[in-house]
Amino acid sequence: MSNNAGFRKLTCLLLVVFSACKVVKTDQGDALPGNTWELDYITGPRIAFEGLFPDKKPRITFDSAAGKVAGNSGCNGYTADYALKGPSLTFGPPGPATKMYCGEGESRFLEMMQEVDGYEIDTEGRLHFMTAEMPLMRFRKIN
Predict the structure, then answer these.
(1) Segment 13-35, tens digit of pLDDT
(2) What is the pTM of this model?
(3) 122 touches 139 (CB < 8 A)
(4) Burial call 13-41: b when 16+ CB within 10 Å, e when fewer
(5) DSSP state of 115
(6) CA 74, 115, 133 angle in degrees (round to 5)?
């Protein structure tokens, strides 16, 4: 086999590998409002995801006109201010919420919201909340 044939095979293999990788899209702020997103992954806890949110998964909806998010934290409702600039996303502290105790999941979710400093939307349309370019939470669009 000549060097050119080996090089072409290697090039083709690399093209296949790189085209199979999921490219993450950023700066998709227009995709956030008008959609409701449901949590399907949260980093860190030692309790399984389904154990954290046995009855209801957290949801978030962005209202760009008001600069607020609203949703359900797995048990109680919440609202918070948010700021979005390019791929940067931050949340203010949650505002008034109902006060039922629902286990560790709700407090973990609300604590993680305060750590978010960015977001990404992957090629499958899932929303990732990030901190220092590391994923904290992942949501799927439900509407």
Answers:
(1) 333 333 333 444 444 557 888 89
(2) 0.77
(3) no
(4) eeeeeeeeeeeeeeeebebbeeeebbbbe
(5) T
(6) 115
